[in-house]
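re: ur msg from earlier - yeah i can do the guanosine-5'-diphosphate complex, just paste it... oh wait u already did. ok heres what im feeding in:
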Amino acid sequence: FVAVAVSGERSYDKLLGGLLADGFDERTCRSRYQSVMYRRRPGKQPSSYLVSKLRQQEALQRRCGPGTMAYSHALEQLRSGKSSGNTIAAQDCKYLVSISYRGLGNRILATASAFLYAMLTGRVLLVDPSNEMGELFCEPFPDTTWLLPPGFPLESYTNFSISTAESYGNMLRNKVIRTDAAGDVPAASQQLPAFSYVHLDHDATEQDNLFFCDEDQRVLRNISWLVMRTDSYIVPGLFLDKGFQDELARLFPEPDTVFHHISRYLFHPNNHVWGLVTRYYDAYLATARQRVGIQVRVFGSQPNSPELLEQITKCTQKQGLLPELLTAGAEPVTQQAPSLNTKAILVTSLKSWYHEKLKGMYWERAAATGEAVSVHQPSHEEFQRFGAKSHDAKAWAEIYLLSLTDTLVTTAWSTFGYVAQGLGGLRPWVMYRPDNETHVPDPPCGRDVSMDPCFHAPPFYDCRLKRGADTGKIVPQVQHCIDMSWGLKIV
Ligand code: GDP
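and the outut:
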C-alpha cells in the first residue's frame, strides 16, 4: 500500500516509502505530506528495517513520553537522585534530553544525531524547546510530544558545560563511574547515578569522547536519564562504535543516507515557514527548467569580497552549473522567440552583494548557451542573530529552498549547507575555504564525496587499541571530509 497525493497528472508517494507515519492531521502541518510535491527528485528509499524501527520508536515515545505514568515515575526517580539499580529492565523507560545551540544548522544536526542515538539505545528523545527548537518544526511523533515539558527537575540543565560534575567525562575522571573492574567491585555491579550529562561540544575532553566507545556505552545503557549537549553531527562517531555497527548496517544499507532519512523524518517546517517556502518557490523557482542553489556563507563583519565572487563564478562555470558569458554585445545564435530555456539561481547569504553581482552579469551579457538565467535571493539579514524568531524562520525557509534545487553549491564548513544537501539528497559542490581572504582557492570547489554532513569535532581515539588514532581509517564508511581535513563523514 502506498499513500499517494495527487497534483495535476502526477501522483506522489507522500509517506516517502513508509518513512513518515500516516494519520497526522494535514492542516496542522502542511509541509509533512506536501513537501514531496516540491521535490523533483524522489529521494532515497528507506530500508524496511528503518521503517519498522521508526514505528517502534513512535510507540516508545507514546508509551513513555510526557503525560504518561511512566514519565511521571521516571521524573520522580530523577528528583530523588536515585537510580533504579545497576541494570535497567527492558520494559523500563529511558530518556535522552537533547540540548542544541548555536546556529540553526548546528541545532538541526545535533537534534538528528540525538534522535539516531536515542533510536539505537531504546531511549525516548526529548528536545529542549529553547533556542526556537519548539517553534520552527512540526511534531514528528504521532499522539505525543518530543518537547521537554516545563518543570524539568534538573533546573540548570541548559547551563551544563564541560565543568559540570555529572558529565560523563568528569564522573569517569573522578571515579564516580568506572568502566573497568577495579578493587573488589566489578564495573557491572557498581551503583550508577540517576542521570549523566554527555558533553560533546567542541571543547569535549578525551574522557567526554569515550562516549564513542562500546565499553562506555555498556555503562551508559544503564543510566535512565542522559542529557546531551552538542552542536555537531556526531553520527560518524557512532559508526566507530563496534556495538552499533550491525544495527546501523541494517538500518542504513546505504550508509551515506543517514541524515537524508532522519532529516526528512524529523524536520517538517511549521505552517508559517512552509508558507515562506512555497510562496517563494511558486513565484520564482517552479517554472524554471533547472534550479541551481548557491549557498554563500559570509559573516556580518566581512567586507564584500571580489575574491569570493570570483570563486563562485569560477566554480559554477568550470563545472558547467552556470553558463559562460559571451563578450559584451554578442548574442547567442539560437535565440529567436521568448526563451523557455530557463535556469533559476537561488542565492542564500546574509549579504545581497553577491546576488546583485551575479544578476547584473547575466543581464548585461548573454549566456553562451542561450539560457535565460534569473537570480534570486529571498532575504539578506546582514548579521547572524541569536534567538530572533523571524530570523530563524527565514533561515529555515532558505535551508529548505536550497534543498529543493537540482544542483547545489555550498560553502565549506557550513552546517547550514549540510542540512540543505541532506534534506535534498544532493551531493553538493563545495567551495573550498581559502587559506587567506585575498586568494581564490584553486580549484575553487570540489564535488563532495557524499550527501551526509561532516562531523567537525570528532574523537581521535581508537577504543580497541586504547590509544590515539586516525579515526578516518578505522572503518571504511567513515572518512575525512573534503572541506575540513580533520572532520569525519559517512560515505
Ligand atoms: P553555520 O554557522 O554556517 O554552520 O550555519 P548555522 O545555521 O548553524 O548558523 C548560521 C546562522 O546565521 C543561521 O542559522 C542563520 O540564522 C544565519 N545565516 C547564515 N547564512 C544565512 C543565509 O544565507 N540566510 C539566512 N536567512 N540566514 C543565514
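cool cool. The first strand starts at residue 4 and ends at 7. ping me if u need the other ligands too
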